[in-house]
Amino acid sequence: MKRKIIAIGGGKGGIGKSLVAANLALVFSRSGQRVVLVDADLGGANLHTCLGMQPPKLGIGDFIFNKVPTIQEVLSPTPYGGLYLISGALDYVGVANPKYTQKLRVIRELSRLDMDIIIIDCGAGTGFNVLDFFLLASHRICVMIPEATSIENAYRFIKMAYYRKLKNSSLNYGLKNTIDEVMASASGVRTPADLVQQVKQIEPAGGALLEAELALFSLDIVLNQLRLPEDGQIGAGIEKACKKFFGIPTSYLGGLPYEPEVWQAIRQRKPLVELFPEAKASQEFKNIAQKILSR
Ligand SMILES: Nc1ncnc2c1ncn2[C@@H]1O[C@H](COP(=O)(O)OP(=O)(O)OP(=O)(O)O)[C@@H](O)[C@H]1O
Ligand SMILES: [Mg+2]
Q1: Among 10, 179, 245, 265, which is most buried by a count of CB atoms within 10 Å?
Q2: pLDDT for 218-242, tens place per residue?
Q3: What is the pTM of this model?
C-alpha cells in the first residue's frame, strides 16, 4: 500500500477533529497498519490526552527547532500497539508559527518514516499553519457538524485552503502578478474556478499548468454530531455545492452520530473505538477507515 498522509481540518473549533484523528488512527493501527498521529494543533495540542497519555517529553517543536536531528526521535509509543504519536505540546515560544519551509521539512520527514499511515490533526481556524499542513497532505478530510455556523466555517475553510494553494502554485508558475491583477480587477471573479479561468485567458500556458495542479485538489467530508435521521443528507448537498461554487471535487466519507459514549470516552481519556467498540460512531469509524483504505 502506498503511504497515506491524511490531514484533518474543518475551520471551526470543537467540532470533533481530534476525535476523528485519534479514532481513525486507532482503527487503522488495529487493521495492521503502522500509524503515526501528528498533533499539529500547535496552540492547543491535546491528542496525548485523547490517548490517555501524559504529554510526551519530546514533540514536534523539538524537531522544528532542531533540538533533535530527525523526526524519528520525537515519535512516542502510545498504549496502543502499532500507533505512535508526535505530540504538539509546546515548550518553545514561537513554535506555534513555524515558517513554511519548516512545515515542508516536517512533511518531508514524515513521509520518509517507515509507517503506512500518517494522520495530522491540523487544529481549528484558517491560519497558515492549519492551511499549510492541510494542503501538504496527500488526503484531506474536512470535519463539520450539521449546523449553519459549522457549515459556513467549513466553506470558508475550503475556500481559504484553495486560495492558499492557488497562491503557492502561482509562485511556482510565475503567475503571482497575473493573479493579483485579476483579483484587483474584480470583474466577475465569483469563485476560485472563475479566477483560474481568467488567469488562463491572460496567460494560457501558465494558466493551464495552474489549472492542472489545482485539479488535483480534492477533499473528503466527515459529518459529526448527527442528531436527526436526515442530517446525513447534508453530505450530498455539500459535495454538490463544493463542485458548483469552488469547482472542487469532494467526497462524503460518512457521518458520526451524536452519542453520549463519545464524550464519556473523552472524559475517561480513552479512544471511543477502544472503550465503546459497539457504539454507532465506532462502527462508522470502521466504515470510514475502510473507505479510505480501499482507495
Ligand atoms: N459525536 C459526538 N457525540 C457527542 N459528543 C461529541 C461528538 N463529537 C464531539 N463531541 C464533543 O465535542 C468535544 C470536542 O471534540 P474535539 O476535541 O474532537 O473537537 P476539535 O474539533 O478537535 O476541537 P478543537 O478545535 O478545540 O481542537 C468532545 O470533547 C466531545 O465532548
Ligand atoms: Mg482538537
Answers
A1: 10
A2: 999 999 999 999 999 999 999 999 8
A3: 0.94
